[in-house]
Amino acid sequence: MTVVSGLPQLLVVGLGNLPFPQTRHSIGHLIIDALAARLHIHMSTDRTMGGVTGRSKVTLGETAVSLILLKPKPLMNITGPSVAGALRKSVKASDAMVIIHDSLSHKPKVLSPKIGGSANGHNGVRSIISALGGETQFHRFRIGIGRGPGDAAEYVLSKLPEEEKFYWNGDGIGLDLICNELERIARKQFESQGLP
């Protein structure tokens, strides 16, 4: 974990496909946009970070954090090298990175956090693990999108229902859950450094 000026530093990456916004597969991008709006973080394109990014010192709950948000530019299934490069250029330690991605295995409006483990069939996560040389000890926020009838590829590229957009956006309950989990990770990392 990287600590800057006594603050824990987190890199939060939302997976998605920039050409296909507002789809189930791009829910990671939607959540990054919602975090940026809520926390007043200006986002802009940064080629050195490989996508659209913003950074700021923010307070999550009662914890001050140096937060970096990133929406990688490459398509999700080949996003690994971009994310690995952003990690090296920012927080350095994989346990200071949070990947937000869609999950067919979880019901809609469910946040399932975990650290480590396999990609569970998610090609974006698989690409990141590969680009990190097999490293899996990063945080994942699996965002439930459910599993619709028919072809999974068509389902994930379909538009996210308005109810789910609202849940994860702005003042939605889902965004509160995301912020609470980010605070928990930052607090744990802060305490592991022996800081108050």
Structural write-up:
This protein is α/β, with parallel strands linked by helices and 196 residues long. The protein is built from 6 helices and 8 strands, in the order ββαβββαββαβααα. It has helices at 27-39, 80-89, 123-131, 152-156, 162-168, 173-192, and strands at 2-4, 7-14, 44-46, 51-60, 63-72, 97-103, 111-115, 139-144. Strands 1, 2, 3, 4, 5, 6, 7 and 8 form an 8-stranded mixed β-sheet that branches. Helix 2 packs across helix 3 (123-131). It starts with a strand and ends with a helix. The model has no long low-confidence stretch (mean pLDDT 93).
Would you spell out the secondary-structure blueprint of this structure?
Layout (H helix, E strand, L loop, with lengths): L1 E3 L2 E8 L12 H13 L4 E3 L4 E10 L2 E10 L7 H10 L7 E7 L7 E5 L7 H9 L7 E6 L7 H5 L5 H7 L4 H20 L4
Parallel strand pairs: 2-5, 2-6, 6-8
Antiparallel strand pairs: 1-2, 3-4, 4-5, 7-8
Compose a concise summary of this entry:
With 196 residues, this protein is of the alpha/beta class.
User: How many alpha or pi helices?
Assistant: 6
Please compute the radius of gyration using only Cα atoms: 15 Å
Low-confidence stretches: none
Q: First CA to last CA: what distance?
A: 16 Å
Largest sheet: 8 strands, mixed
> What is the residue-mean pLDDT, rounded to a whole number?
93
Beta-strand content bin? 25-35%
Number of strands: 8
> Quaternary state, please?
single chain
Globally, the shape reads globular
Q: Based on helices, strands and strand pairing, what is the structural class? A: alpha/beta
Order of helices and strands: EEHEEEHEEHEHHH
